[in-house]
Amino acid sequence: MTMTNVPSGKRRRVKVPDVMEILGPIYGPVDRTPRYNAAQELVYTILSQHTSDVNSTRAYDSLMAMFESLDSIAAASPSAIEDAIRQGGLAAQKSVRIKTILNQVKAEVGSYDLSFLAEMPLDEAKAWLKRLPGVGPKTAAIILCFALGMPAMPVDTHVHRVSVRLGLIGRKVSADKAHDILEAKVPPDDVLPFHMYLIWHGRQVCKAQRPRCGECALAWGCPARAGFEKAAGRTKTGAGRPSQRKTKKEASNG
Ligand code: SF4
Predict the structure, then answer these.
(1) pTM of the model
(2) Ligand 1 environment, Cβ below 6 A
(3) pLDDT in tens, 112-132
(4) Neighbours of 220 (CB within 10 A)
(5) How many whole angstroms from 16 Cα to the centroid of ligand 1?
């Protein structure tokens, strides 16, 4: 991906349609097939909190291998669940949370079938999930978006960082508040691909520490680019490092 993607004649900021139009061909089509049903996705998402995808997948697979069904997990002791999910980190906290949530869902719904959420208005479906312990805006959006195909925007660290840098949300907008703001800007059908494109872009190009602005197809309209390039220039030349700056007196002495 290079600066050759600069749209001709554009001297403006990147907007949501630009993200779709430019990053779509770069990262390709997004698979919309659900990996789990909604209740399984809920368990997986709890396991994925504060750990990597690799660890949460290992923990989920281990949990399902040990108990085989959500009913068995709900009936198990927290310590048995904890043993099964140890690889995912924070196992003591997550085991209690998973057991509590599954029992609450079963008591309220009569099963683990959460497909009724897809019939609700988006705000109501989110509110229903957010009542569950440990379920915040991101977890609720992941379940609704990935498992039920609803236009809920999960905002993780990459989506938040890239959106702020591109000026799609304000610098002071928290990730929790960004869900609703981005959902209002992105057409419903584009929510999942937009989410994935910003994650991939954040991992590969707009990295947290050293964004690769020189390789970024959105650099033409990114308000953060100049600041990063200036900082990179300072680092290269050493300008700004007190030890390498000469005082007026030193300079006049050569
Ligand atoms: S130009 Fe730089 S800061 Fe802006 S989106 Fe691209 S990589 Fe990120």
Answers:
(1) 0.85
(2) 162, 165-166, 205-206, 211-213, 216, 218-219, 222, 224-225, 228
(3) 999 999 999 999 999 999 999
(4) 19
(5) 14
